[in-house]
Specification:
Elements: E1 4-5, E2 8-10, H1 19-31, E3 36-37, E4 40-42, H2 62-69, E5 73-79, H3 87-93, E6 103-110, H4 118-130, E7 133-135, E8 140-142, H5 158-185
Parallel strand pairs: 1-3, 2-4, 2-5, 5-6, 6-7, 6-8
């Protein structure tokens, strides 16, 4: 089977963000798989205008637009801020609409607290469904993220996270494959 294209979107631009460690680790995990090809997008890289969010704004970000057009799925890594998602993540997601329809999305919640971003995942389900994305049922959560990675961004005790990431990605591959077939064969 042809590899599935599944970009990763890191959804915060905060200074000293711990979710960047999660994104870089998951990027490496995904790059080791034979069934996936991926690219990391970072909301920091989007130079968003302050005055116009009209329909042509997506043309200002052709790399993102083209990646989503060619994508079979998407992974969103979102830290939980006050039980919600960062505003910049919503802004970047809103750059597109029809490009997302009938594609899989898998959500990664990150938090400094004990629940691993479960509230941000709950909040994002509503957003991504409205965009036409199909949410996987397996999420990946990083609780107390400041304790999961060392000062160099290396994961401590990777075995437990690798097992969870495998289940998370296996579900994403299944859903992305089914939706790819559907987009190609059903009108």
């Amino acid at each position: 089977m042809e590899k599935l294209s599944v970009p990763i979107l890191l959804g915060t631009n905060r200074k000293d963000r711990q979710s960047e460690h999660v994104a870089r680790w998951l990027l490496q995990v995904m790059q080791k798989r034979d069934d996936l090809e991926t690219t990391l997008f970072d909301v920091r890289e989007f130079d968003l205008p302050n005055d116009d969010y009209g329909t042509v704004i997506k043309d200002l970000f052709p790399k993102w637009r083209d990646a989503i057009i060619g994508a079979d799925g998407l992974v969103i890594i979102a830290p939980e801020y006050n039980h919600g998602y960062p505003g910049i993540l919503k802004t970047v997601l809103d750059l597109l609409l029809k490009e997302y329809i009938h594609k899989a999305v898998a959500l990664v919640g990150v938090s400094a607290g004990p629940w691993g971003g479960t509230k941000v995942v709950e909040q994002l389900v509503c957003v991504v469904r409205e965009l036409g994305l199909t949410v996987t049922f397996t999420d990946l959560n990083f609780a107390k993220v400041q304790d999961v990675f060392d000062e160099h961004g290396n994961i401590k005790g990777p075995e437990q996270y690798e097992k969870r990431a495998k289940s998370f990605l296996d579900e994403l591959v299944w859903m992305s494959s089914a939706l790819r077939w559907g987009r190609a064969n059903l009108k």
